[in-house]
């Protein structure tokens, strides 16, 4: 953990405002949780097994709580890093509004509640899958990979890719090629998404001692990796459209989105460092924004395709 002068820390926390309900909500990383909720819902809804709407709602709710618990545990352990990075300094723990022990308690309590309740409303396979996902994100990624290897976001990205598989498991009690391909879609999307961000946030990661690829290997290598991953990602995206959950609507959306994403990856690859700095990394920021809509529109297309009828 980062060393902090005790007197300065006491003065800082004394001046910090008291925690409000919204601060505890912020611990759960609601923006990240919204992606977890949506992809889990799609995985559950398009599965070839009918689930009562109330049970489906409860299942997605408890998956969301599990995702929020992961976020709280991540913030608890990463408080030292968050205090250094500009984009995270205002989070509840580094700002002094929530004590680390409180965040740990929230994370552990919600983890237990989410897993137990998902087992009761869905099945114990899905509950065990959720428990593994929480463990993977909080321990394997946060405590180990993030501070150890530049492949942190590649391997650790699996945690964010599990929710549609958990949703599918809630309905079917198992795993299929369709759920694996939904996993692959998120898994291979995660590196170019975060590396595009890291290209214009490199100093943040460097100051915090996080071995992001931009820090350990430089921006040129990162650009090549981004473009390579967009090509691999496109293959899995199209493959998903050829399965039982795909169809012409999904494939049309996938083709357009992947053409745009590959084009963006190519533009990032061809960038000169001087030009990138001169325009404030405008291309990199545009590709990052595109990546935000890329995943949402893919899963929305799966929902629409399911409503219209699949292959």
UniProtKB/TrEMBL annotation:
<keyword id="KW-0812">Transmembrane</keyword>
<feature type="transmembrane region" description="Helical">
    <location>
        <begin position="152"/>
        <end position="175"/>
    </location>
</feature>
<dbReference type="InterPro" id="IPR044878">
    <property type="entry name" value="UbiA_sf"/>
</dbReference>
<feature type="transmembrane region" description="Helical">
    <location>
        <begin position="54"/>
        <end position="77"/>
    </location>
</feature>
<comment type="pathway">
    <text>Porphyrin-containing compound metabolism; heme O biosynthesis; heme O from protoheme: step 1/1.</text>
</comment>
<feature type="transmembrane region" description="Helical">
    <location>
        <begin position="181"/>
        <end position="200"/>
    </location>
</feature>
<dbReference type="GO" id="GO:0008495">
    <property type="term" value="F:protoheme IX farnesyltransferase activity"/>
</dbReference>
<keyword id="KW-0350">Heme biosynthesis</keyword>
<dbReference type="GO" id="GO:0005886">
    <property type="term" value="C:plasma membrane"/>
</dbReference>
<dbReference type="GO" id="GO:0048034">
    <property type="term" value="P:heme O biosynthetic process"/>
</dbReference>
<feature type="transmembrane region" description="Helical">
    <location>
        <begin position="248"/>
        <end position="266"/>
    </location>
</feature>
<feature type="transmembrane region" description="Helical">
    <location>
        <begin position="226"/>
        <end position="242"/>
    </location>
</feature>
<dbReference type="InterPro" id="IPR006369">
    <property type="entry name" value="Protohaem_IX_farnesylTrfase"/>
</dbReference>
<comment type="function">
    <text>Converts heme B (protoheme IX) to heme O by substitution of the vinyl group on carbon 2 of heme B porphyrin ring with a hydroxyethyl farnesyl side group.</text>
</comment>
<dbReference type="Pfam" id="PF01040">
    <property type="entry name" value="UbiA"/>
</dbReference>
<keyword id="KW-0472">Membrane</keyword>
<keyword id="KW-1133">Transmembrane helix</keyword>
<feature type="transmembrane region" description="Helical">
    <location>
        <begin position="124"/>
        <end position="145"/>
    </location>
</feature>
<keyword id="KW-0808">Transferase</keyword>
<comment type="subunit">
    <text>Interacts with CtaA.</text>
</comment>
<protein>
    <recommendedName>
        <fullName>Protoheme IX farnesyltransferase</fullName>
        <ecNumber>2.5.1.141</ecNumber>
    </recommendedName>
</protein>
<feature type="transmembrane region" description="Helical">
    <location>
        <begin position="287"/>
        <end position="308"/>
    </location>
</feature>
<dbReference type="InterPro" id="IPR000537">
    <property type="entry name" value="UbiA_prenyltransferase"/>
</dbReference>
<dbReference type="InterPro" id="IPR030470">
    <property type="entry name" value="UbiA_prenylTrfase_CS"/>
</dbReference>
<keyword id="KW-1003">Cell membrane</keyword>
<feature type="transmembrane region" description="Helical">
    <location>
        <begin position="32"/>
        <end position="48"/>
    </location>
</feature>
<comment type="similarity">
    <text>Belongs to the UbiA prenyltransferase family. Protoheme IX farnesyltransferase subfamily.</text>
</comment>
């Amino acid at each position: 953990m980062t060393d902090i002068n005790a007197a300065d820390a006491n003065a800082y926390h004394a001046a910090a405002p008291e925690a409000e309900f919204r601060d505890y909500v912020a611990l759960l990383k609601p923006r990240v949780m919204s992606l977890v909720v949506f992809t889990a819902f799609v995985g559950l809804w398009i599965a070839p097994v009918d689930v009562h709407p109330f049970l489906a709602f409860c299942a997605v709710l408890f998956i969301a709580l599990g995702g929020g618990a992961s976020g709280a545990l991540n913030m608890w352990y990463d408080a030292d890093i968050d205090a250094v990075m500009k984009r995270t300094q205002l989070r509840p723990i580094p700002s002094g509004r929530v004590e680390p022990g409180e965040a740990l308690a929230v994370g552990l309590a919600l983890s237990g509640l989410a897993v137990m309740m998902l087992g009761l409303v869905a099945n114990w396979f899905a509950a065990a899958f959720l428990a593994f996902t929480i463990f993977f994100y909080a321990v394997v990624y946060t405590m180990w990979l993030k501070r150890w290897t530049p492949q942190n976001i590649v391997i650790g990205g699996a945690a964010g890719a599990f929710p549609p598989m958990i949703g599918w498991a809630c309905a079917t009690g198992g795993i299929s090629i369709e759920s694996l391909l939904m996993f692959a879609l998120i898994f291979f999307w995660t590196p170019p998404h975060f590396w595009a961000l890291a290209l214009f946030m490199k100093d943040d990661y460097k100051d915090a001692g996080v071995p992001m690829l931009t820090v350990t290997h430089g921006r040129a290598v990162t650009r090549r990796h981004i473009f390579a991953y967009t090509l691999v990602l496109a293959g899995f995206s199209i493959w998903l459209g050829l399965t039982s959950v795909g169809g012409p609507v999904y494939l049309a959306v996938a083709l357009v989105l992947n053409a745009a994403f590959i084009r963006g990856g190519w533009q990032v690859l061809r960038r000169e460092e001087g030009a990138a700095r001169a325009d404030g990394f405008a291309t990199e920021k545009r590709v990052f924004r595109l990546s935000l809509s890329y995943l949402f529109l893919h899963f929305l297309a799966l929902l629409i395709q399911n409503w219209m009828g699949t292959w």
